[in-house]
Every structure is written in C-alpha cells, then in structure tokens.
Amino acid sequence: MDTREPMLEMFIFETFDMIEQLQQLIIDSEKNKRLETEAINEIFRIMHTIKGSSGMMMFDNISNLSHTIEDLFYFIRESKPGKIDYSKLTDLVLEGSDLIKIETEKINNNKDTDGDFTLFIEKVKGFLKLLKTYDENSEDSGNGGSDELVSEEDVEQKYYLSTDRVNSNLNLFSATLFFDEECDMENIRCFTVVHQLKEISEVSYYYPEDIIENNDTCEIIKKQGFKIFFKTNQSIEDIRTLLMENAFLNNVDINKFYSEIEFSEQFSKKNEKPQEDIIKSINNIVNDTNDNEKVASKSLSYKQSLISVDVNKLDKLMDLVGELVISEAMVTKNPEISELQLDSFNKAARQHRKRLSDLQDVVMSIRMVSLAPTLTKMNRIVRDMCKKLNKEVELEIIGQETEVDKNIIEHIGDPLMHIVRNSMDHGIETKEERLVNGKPSIGKITIEAKNTGGEVWIIIKDNGKGLNKDKILKKAKDNGLLKVKENDLTDREIYSMIFLPGFSTKENVTEFSGRGVGMDVVTKEIEKIRGIVTVDSIPGEETTTSIKIPLTLAIIDGMTIKVGKSVFTIPVTSIRQSFIIKKEDIIRDIDNNEMILIRGECYSILKLHEFYNIKTNVVNIEDGIVIMVEDQGKAKCIFADELIGEQQVVIKALPEYIKKVKAISGCSLLGDATISLILDISEIVNL
C-alpha cells in the first residue's frame, strides 16, 4: 500500500500536469511564430511554481533548472526582445521539461533525483545572453542611444533576492491569503507560500502555525484565511504579484506597518495564545454548523465539488456495481419465481433495475476522462520528428473532447504514438518528393476521435504515399509470416500485416524504425481493451488507421440469443432489427449462399450453428429468428434459434488459456449461472 506523504503525492501529480501544459504552450507558440503575453505569463507561472515546490521538497536540481528557465521568460516578458529564435527556444523548453519529467518519474519510483543539469543550465544562459545581444543591438539601431544593457544578475526577477541581499530598509507587511472554494489541502499550499516568501523576506510569524502537523488547520484556513507576517524590501505590488501566482489562490489582503513596534505587537498578540485561538476557531466552526446545518451542508458540499480519488477505489466500485447487476438478474430471472404472479415483486424489481441503472451511469461518468491530454501529446512527436526527418507536417486533431473509461485511456497512448511515428517515417514524403508528385509541400496527419453508440473510434489519416501492397507481401514471405495463399487475402488483411511482430519494410535501421518492433505494440495494447485495429490505404494518396475501442470495459445492454444449448449476447447498440422470415424471402447468390431480400436490398446470413459447429434442431431459416446487426455502415443477418431477452451483462475477458475465438469479444455470467459469449459485431459484418 502506498504510504507516501500527501505533500509529495501532490507535488508529483501537479508537476506532471504542469509539464504537459508547458509543452503544449511552447509548441503552440512555435507554430504561431510568436509568444502571446498570456502564454509567457503562464509559462512563467508554471516554472515559478515548479521551482518553489521542488525547492520546498529539497529537490534542488529541479528547482535550479526551473529557476533558469524562469529567468529566461522573465527577460522575455519584461524586455520584449524583437528577435527570438522560436525553434531554439522551443527546443530548450522541451528539453528542460523532459529533464524535469525524468526526475519526477524517479521521485514517483522512490529513486534519488541525481540528474546533473549543469550543461543544460549553461545552454539556457547562453541563449539568454544571445537574446540580450539582439535586444541591445535593436536598441542601439533604433535609438542610437548609449543605454547600457542590464547585467544578467540584474535581469533576474527581483522576487528571487535571497535574504542576505535584502537591505536594511525593510517594509513590514502582513498578508492574509484566501483560497478558491474547490481548493483542497490548503495547509500544504500555505506551507509552499511560507517557503516562497522566505526567499525574499524575513518571515516573522504565520497563523495557523502547525499547518503541516495538523490537517485540521485546513478548516481554519477556509474560515479565516492564512495570515503571515514578514519583512522585505519589496513593494506591496511586487508581493501581491508573487503570491497570486500560486495555484488556487483567490485573494490576498496585504497590510503595511510603519513601525517595528506596531508590527511586533500584531503578531505578538497572535502568538500569546495560539492554542486558544485554534480551539476557539474550531468551536466557532462547530457552532456555526449546529446553528445552520442546512447552509453548512450546502457550503461543504460545494467546497468539495472537486476531489481526487484513487483509481483503484473506482475500479472496486465498478466491480461492485457489476456484481449487483449479476445479483439482480439472479433474483429476477430465478426459475422458481418466474411462473408466479407476483405483481408487487415485479414492480419492486423494475424500480430496483431503474435505480441500479442510475447508479451504473453515475459510476461510469466518474470514470470517464477526456482524450485531449493523450491526443495533444502527439503534437510533440510530430514536431520532433519533423526536425529530425527534415519534413514539414501539419497535425490536425478533431474531437479531442471525446471521453472514454480511465482504464481504456491508459492503453491507447503507446499505440497512437507508434501509428503517428509510422505515418511520419513511412507515410509522409519529404518536401521535395511531394512537390515532384504534385502534392502540397506540407504533409498532413489528422487524428479524429468520435463516439458512435457504445464505441469510440480513433482514426489516424495521413496524406502520404500510402502502403505498398506488393512490398508488404514480399516482406511477409521473406520473414515466413505468410500463412495463407495471397489470393485468399483482402487488401485490408495484407495491410494489417504491418502489425505482425518482427515485421518491417525499412531497409535501414533508424532512430524511428527498421527493427521490426513497435507496430505490434499497437495490436497487443488495443486487444487488451477488446479493441480492434484496421488499416486502409490508397497507394500514392493516403493511409487510414482506425482504432475501435469500447466506451467502457464493464457493463453493456445486451440482447441474449440461444443456439442449441449455447447462449450468445449481442450489444443492443449494434442491433438494427429482428424478425422471422418466410421461405420466399430467401434468395441465393452465384455461389449458392443464402441471402435475405429486405426492402429491395440483399443481406448475407451468418448461421451461428454452422459457424461454431453447434448441434441444434433449428436448422431451417424460417423456423428460427434473424437479427440484423450493423457496424460502421455494414450490415449482416445473424440466424439463431430464439431470442431470450434484453438484459444488462457484465463483460468479462475470456480466460487466458482459451485462444482467441473468432467473432467473440468476451463472456458474461447470466442470472441463471449460464455463461454467455459476447459477439463481436465489427468482426461479424466483415466475415
């Protein structure tokens, strides 16, 4: 069990989050060839926060690195240099963020932060000097003046003056901090502020005092704010600006004292009976709650509207909901009561089903997370590969607000990365090649995410040279990967060979490809979440890779059907209609296969008893039931003995000792203890 301190846990979480924000900000700025004021301020705030929090946690190498990048953006913000090499600036920021990320991962894995960033820090300082030179030349040419450029030490933000540089003419301040309603762990954030102020001031006193040892101080801070007394040579405006850069800080009240006596008296009074003050504050909170329980309840629920929850707890909650679904089916489908006329019981069962469905929806909504962070990471991959491969590529992301289950999103990051890298390396041509072929010089990769029914599709398309079918077949033969005759393979099956382990059409091993590893990760990871990957290509024009993943790994609404003694479940979202057909509705194609004519259109029939070799007495098509299913515009008819009915089923993966069964995506335990196999409709319509 993880017993890490909450402060360390918060540091790791917030650092990873801020690094992602930082990378996206700087990449967007490079694309736009300009740094907006908002972006500069946000990058500055991120580096300032990481510097302060890492310094407080005694991770000095991270703090020093962050401070260096912070100095760089302070100069950019204050001096507004007219000439900036955005490519070089982006390289530096991304390199720095990678170094911070590596060190944070070490912390997360309980390892020492032993990275030496001396060379990188010198590189940033060199770039800063270059910016100053540009700025100085610009001023000289523009004004012909003799204004001397400020030294590097003076350029450092004045907030960072250590206490030994503070002069004797100190200002005396008290500051009261109030945090946002959705903030939590206020005591730890206050400790960060204290550490931050100690860099530029002499902190004399703060209240509550035991903010680290006593978590109850959070309620006092929420109620009364956090008060701190300090001496500094900074102005009120400088202090306010510095403090407001802290996350979740809503407001700061700053008072200035004009005499040492007045200043000392204020916190001395506070310091005389701190324990009594704490007790009094807590008693006030309790009394307020008793006086107005409804108001307090409403207030507390609002303040806790955003909380962090261990994902393992959500997994456990989802498992319990799944067990409830099975238990409910075991009661309502019990054969001992199915023949009885129990109106009250049936009414209660329907009400129970409705409440259980509501509970399931709420739990699922808690687990849903946006694809945006995963998809935007592809910007970095495209950007880095463009520089190394000397290609120009535009990345377009559509539908990044699409949400999927938390467990699913953890499995799609690596597959997406490998597909995008493959498009960059194999698909998109160089600028010269594209111009020769009459294409725009800039290639394009589009990533689209969309929700269709109970599934999520992620489609990656590039307008490169497409896949060479003959080359893929030859390579498959040479590597002994071709198990069937060429003529028996569809184009899609041939293209899908690029996902086989050890397959590579690259003649030379490069940083990005040629080793025969990577693309097989795509299918392995996607299959873990019951997804499928397909590839389509138009030679010379484009390649499209489609990933279909379930919206959830837990519970679906299914239609249960019977074939002989076997039971199957079809996801309700895939069913178009079900019907009994007459013999005259049956026609045969040129291969003598049975087809159904419905409203002028012919549909092929999949007889489950023949497909899975199941013994049944229902073999004539007019004696059973036909279910028309649809996926991605393709339809097919499934023939079964009978419909059992619609019910919610809890999806379970097939045991590992059972090899992959064609057109089966999982199994489920029904209320009568029967095992039902869940049909994979996307595979069935393509049979």
UniProtKB/TrEMBL annotation:
<dbReference type="InterPro" id="IPR037052">
    <property type="entry name" value="CheA-like_P2_sf"/>
</dbReference>
<protein>
    <recommendedName>
        <fullName>Chemotaxis protein CheA</fullName>
        <ecNumber>2.7.13.3</ecNumber>
    </recommendedName>
</protein>
<keyword id="KW-0808">Transferase</keyword>
<dbReference type="InterPro" id="IPR008207">
    <property type="entry name" value="Sig_transdc_His_kin_Hpt_dom"/>
</dbReference>
<dbReference type="Pfam" id="PF02518">
    <property type="entry name" value="HATPase_c"/>
</dbReference>
<dbReference type="InterPro" id="IPR004358">
    <property type="entry name" value="Sig_transdc_His_kin-like_C"/>
</dbReference>
<keyword id="KW-0597">Phosphoprotein</keyword>
<keyword id="KW-0145">Chemotaxis</keyword>
<dbReference type="GO" id="GO:0005737">
    <property type="term" value="C:cytoplasm"/>
</dbReference>
<dbReference type="InterPro" id="IPR002545">
    <property type="entry name" value="CheW-lke_dom"/>
</dbReference>
<dbReference type="InterPro" id="IPR005467">
    <property type="entry name" value="His_kinase_dom"/>
</dbReference>
<dbReference type="Pfam" id="PF02895">
    <property type="entry name" value="H-kinase_dim"/>
</dbReference>
<dbReference type="InterPro" id="IPR036641">
    <property type="entry name" value="HPT_dom_sf"/>
</dbReference>
<keyword id="KW-0547">Nucleotide-binding</keyword>
<keyword id="KW-0902">Two-component regulatory system</keyword>
<dbReference type="InterPro" id="IPR051315">
    <property type="entry name" value="Bact_Chemotaxis_CheA"/>
</dbReference>
<dbReference type="InterPro" id="IPR004105">
    <property type="entry name" value="CheA-like_dim"/>
</dbReference>
<keyword id="KW-0418">Kinase</keyword>
<feature type="modified residue" description="Phosphohistidine">
    <location>
        <position position="48"/>
    </location>
</feature>
<dbReference type="InterPro" id="IPR036061">
    <property type="entry name" value="CheW-like_dom_sf"/>
</dbReference>
<feature type="domain" description="Histidine kinase">
    <location>
        <begin position="319"/>
        <end position="553"/>
    </location>
</feature>
<dbReference type="Pfam" id="PF07194">
    <property type="entry name" value="P2"/>
</dbReference>
<dbReference type="InterPro" id="IPR035891">
    <property type="entry name" value="CheY-binding_CheA"/>
</dbReference>
<dbReference type="Pfam" id="PF01627">
    <property type="entry name" value="Hpt"/>
</dbReference>
<feature type="domain" description="HPt">
    <location>
        <begin position="1"/>
        <end position="107"/>
    </location>
</feature>
<dbReference type="GO" id="GO:0000155">
    <property type="term" value="F:phosphorelay sensor kinase activity"/>
</dbReference>
<feature type="domain" description="CheW-like">
    <location>
        <begin position="555"/>
        <end position="687"/>
    </location>
</feature>
<dbReference type="GO" id="GO:0006935">
    <property type="term" value="P:chemotaxis"/>
</dbReference>
<dbReference type="InterPro" id="IPR036890">
    <property type="entry name" value="HATPase_C_sf"/>
</dbReference>
<keyword id="KW-0067">ATP-binding</keyword>
<dbReference type="Pfam" id="PF01584">
    <property type="entry name" value="CheW"/>
</dbReference>
<dbReference type="GO" id="GO:0005524">
    <property type="term" value="F:ATP binding"/>
</dbReference>
<dbReference type="InterPro" id="IPR003594">
    <property type="entry name" value="HATPase_dom"/>
</dbReference>
<dbReference type="InterPro" id="IPR036097">
    <property type="entry name" value="HisK_dim/P_sf"/>
</dbReference>
<dbReference type="InterPro" id="IPR037006">
    <property type="entry name" value="CheA-like_homodim_sf"/>
</dbReference>
<keyword id="KW-0963">Cytoplasm</keyword>
<dbReference type="InterPro" id="IPR010808">
    <property type="entry name" value="CheA_P2-bd"/>
</dbReference>
<comment type="function">
    <text>Involved in the transmission of sensory signals from the chemoreceptors to the flagellar motors. CheA is autophosphorylated; it can transfer its phosphate group to either CheB or CheY.</text>
</comment>
